[in-house]
Amino acid sequence: MSFGEPIALHGQAELERAAAASPATTLDARPSAEVQFIDRLRAHDAAAFEHLVNDHTSEIYALLYRLTEDAEEARDLTQETFLQAFRHISHFRGDADLRTWLYRIAVNQARNRWRWWKRRRRNVTVSLDAPLDGADELSLGSRLADERGPSPEQQTLARERERAIMSALRSLARPYREAIVLRDVEGLSYEEVAAALDISVGTVKSRLSRGRLELRKRLEGSL
């Protein structure tokens, strides 16, 4: 870990309660190969966990980078996410797919780290190197990557758009930002976002609506 003080595990209790409350038969509808893979994970099969890490590290890191805006912190929290997944896989009951379950853990880790630093009044420095993709009502990705083989001028304009969007995004309240990153950037469905954030679909839609409205206000005149 990059920091001396341990990360708080406040979000893990909620994770365990949600997993334990989900129906035990949910996995029955899954393909047999997936069920067998989950069984191997529950048995703490090292090869299965290595496969899980290899398959999902990039997307978990990308999510955490957009939530923390710090490359070192995102790498640190990615490792912590998979560590927590290893520790709590026995509580996985199939209420969501493995990817969404990992996203839920990652979001909890980002929240815990944010609270840890907030208590210490850390000044946040932001990197704007990560590209956005995905689309919804706001069409975040289409603003940045609608040209193939862009000219130098187009590349400069794209970087300006990216900076404007990232600046507006980081200014949002954390609940709105989480919802927009998961839905509009990562491309999760409403149901997957709800599962990742442990909230209702209605709350997801409400946060997206208010968050997008705030983004539009901040982007007026910028794009």
**CATH class group of the largest domain:** Mainly Alpha
Indicate the low-confidence ranges by residue numbers. 1-25, 122-139
- The amount of helix comes to 55-70%
Briefly note the CATH topology name of the largest domain.
Rna Polymerase Sigma Factor, Chain: A
What percentage of amino acids are in beta strands?
under 5%
Task: Give a structural overview.
With 223 residues, the protein is mostly helical. The protein folds into two domains: 110 residues, RNA polymerase sigma factor, region 2, helix turn helix motif (Rna Polymerase Sigma Factor, Chain: A, Orthogonal Bundle); 80 residues, Arc Repressor Mutant, subunit A (Orthogonal Bundle), CATH 1.10.10.10. 67% of the residues lie in helices and 0% in strands. It contains ten helices and no strands. The longest helix has 23 residues.
Short description:
The protein has 10 helices and no strands. With 223 residues, the protein is mostly helical.
Features:
globular; mainly alpha; 223 residues; Arc Repressor Mutant, subunit A; Rna Polymerase Sigma Factor, Chain: A
Strands, helices and their partners?
Layout: H1 10-21, H2 32-42, H3 46-68, H4 71-88, H5 98-119, H6 140-144, H7 152-170, H8 174-185, H9 190-197, H10 201-219
Helix pairs in contact: 1-5, 3-4, 3-5, 4-5, 5-9, 8-10, 9-10
